[in-house]
Amino acid sequence: MTKSLIVDPSVVRAPGKLTIPEIPLNAYTFDLDTELARYGKDGMVRMLHDMIVVRTFESMLDSIKKTGSWEGIEYNHAGPAHLGIGQEAAYVGQSFVLTPDDQLFGSHRSHGEILAKCYSAMRQIDNSQLETIMKDFLDGETLSFAEKIDYTDTKDLTENFILFGALAEIFARKSGFNRGLGGSMHTFFLPFGSYPNNAIVGGSAPVANGAALFKRINRKPGIVISNIGDASMACGPVWEAMNFATMDQFATLWREEDGGYPPILFNFFNNFYGMGGQTFGETMGYEVLARVGAGLNPEAMHAERVDGINPLAVADATSRKKVLLEAGKGPVLMDTLTYRFSGHSPSDASSYRNADEVELWQNVDCIKSYSELLIANGLTTQGDIDAYTAAFTEKLTKVLRLATDEENCPRIADGYIETVMFSNTPTEAMEEGEAEIYLEGNPRVAALEKKIRTAFDENGKPVSKMKMFQFRDALFEAMLHRFSIDPTMAAWGEENRDWGGAFAVYRGLTEALPYRRLFNSPIAEASIVGAGVGYAMAGGRAVIELMYCDFLGRSGDEVFNQMAKWQSMSAGLLKMPLVLRVSVGNKYGAQHSQDWSALTAHIPGLKVFFPATPTDAKGMLNLALRGTDPVVFFESQLLYDKGEEFEKDGVPTGYYETPEGEPAIRREGTDVTIATYGATLYRAMEAAKILEEKYGMSAEVIDLRFVAPLNYEKLLASVKKTGRLVLASDAVERGSFLHTVASTVQTLAFDDLDAPVAVVGSRNGITPGPELESIFFPQPEWIIDTIHERVVPIPGHVPTSNQTEGEIIRRNRLGI
């Protein structure tokens, strides 16, 4: 427990000086006998061959983009091609010493990494397994094209498969590695350890960290490498990921048998430029990128600057770091020097670079210098190099011809994308095995057995908070159930352990779970969510928590670009069993009390749940936790101590799921429909009661429960019956998801409506303190006044708030 880690003032206040470990810079020294012992003559020559593969492949793309042709084949490639011409030694040296179990995450400039990693893995996998992999992948579709290119054996065929799969993906072909949905910047091939490459600068760092966390928690072999550029050192999520990976708890609180630190290597391909900004001397201040490791942990992340112009130097460093990582002594930071002769993209003329500088680096071009090294040591000849280059060029020409065949190599059909947006494959456990959990004598479990699972007793009297089964208890039961049956499930976030979560949902789990399944993360939202993405992508189930909805902004890329998109960009090859719990606050003012459900609703690829009752809290979290899709699970802080008011028998004790996307009718009525989600449900119920008792108006109240997916049939049936609809939630009115609901209902049920659909939301201003919340959040009288002013006049009603059309015009004119 953290409370056992004593912070002693006599220690932390003691005077002294901090000593930073030495950080090696370009320490590699070539020794022929050593390298021959490591790789043999053939291995050293294969490194050169792989570099030629990458250079030729990217030179082909460069020519296609700039001239529209290569080797007599014409093609207009509309997509991007961010090239790494000049960086081949760094790609190949790294991958050459990795195994298929090692996972490589890259950036948008990733063609070389994909090819180098796949070639390396291919050589280490036996032929029968290679044949099975290719036959099973996309039902053999990619293989069918590879077989059309001449080959001599299984390895040669696999080379065709790699080249075609990657190029077809870049050209958005259906037979590409990701059906053309990943494209140039995102393609990958999981069976060979080539994991998703990321178009967001530094985007791979937090995701790769999660994949490494999966390996550590689930005791899987291999390491994980995040390949990112030097410019990404300025990105917050990169720092957050490195901080997460260096947390002391991996050594101080996790058990020894849990393996130590996650096996992640943060490798910075340092080519001195971020687009047109020069990191060295202009946009950065570190001088030597490897220096940054000293700021993260006492070992300075075992940081090292490596000469990436020499593939042997990169292979040496990668091998040494891998030993550390596999022993749980990481993480590692590598500053791999390299240089790209190509611009940021083919449209970049590199006008920001001095021609003299480019010439200096061309004089030490990695293929030229490594060729000279091999020739000088009698390992190959220029004739052999030229012959290999010519033979590969001929092979690549055939690959290009196939991948650009408009008639025989088609793209996906219209409508296909929607089939891969979600996996929709409920799964009890992501892996077989026994889940490590200790429930005997658990105080929370024992206490819940005695609680009353309704809000009112048999006489209709309110049950006391102490005796009542609450919303937070329902969430706890759902979590406990899945923890008990899925050995891969892990949860982390802000104050998850010991404190029991910010709102006591996790109280009792500390006693039930070892640290590797439940732990506190840094207060760094990008790393929390990013790690969840990588963990799920690697095959585990993760539950991550943001204490307040407002903190979504701190994790924006991870939620909106990573969590939401990888299933579809992978053409369904990846699954994302990830639940992001987000509390929607009140009483803490403008930066802690916002409902941002509309932001998540706007992003394709996310499922968005928002329960309002304890029964749904358990049933909807059960649903999310058995699924394999990313779910943003909103919880209103106003509801954590709520009891069950709608289900007569209370919250069920056993396992159940709320039907996905289905609203619930909480009160039947005939004159007007009021639909809500979140805590506003209870104010809508109060408004309905006033309407009936004071004005004789019958209101039907519907709890939408779901934002996405959402089945409109029940809502449309209600509108057909009542002819009127008012929508209400605690989100600010402008941009509210309820406007989408209103538009959809008016499109689908226009003839059934007797009045326009009205939306009631919070004021379009900052959230005030708790003393003023009644003038900010929707109140029962606001709903009634809206019905009176904009839906149907209520005889005898005198409005107490201004919900008129004129007020709508006034507020919008002022931007409020």
Task: State the gist of this model.
This protein has 816 residues and is of the alpha/beta class.
Verbal overview:
With 816 residues, the protein is α/β, with parallel strands linked by helices. 39% of the residues lie in helices and 12% in strands. Helix 4 (111-124) packs antiparallel against helix 7, helix 8 (204-218) packs parallel to helix 9 and helix 19 packs parallel to helix 20 (556-563). The longest helix has 36 residues, at 32-67. It starts with 8 loop residues before the first helix and ends with a helix. 53% of the residues are buried.
Poorly predicted regions: none
Largest sheet: 7 strands, mixed
Structural class of the helices, strands and pairings?
A: alpha/beta
Order of strands in the sheet with most strands:
12-11-13-14-16-15-20
The portion of residues assigned to helices is 25-40%
Treating each run of at least 4 consecutive H or I residues as one helix, how many helices?
28
Q: State the distance separating the first and last CA atoms.
A: 48 Å
Which value, in Å, is the CA radius of gyration?
30 Å
Q: Proportion of β residues? A: 5-15%
Quantity of strands, as a count: 22
Task: Average the pLDDT over all residues and give the rounded result.
Answer: 95
Give the overall shape, derived from the CA principal axes.
globular
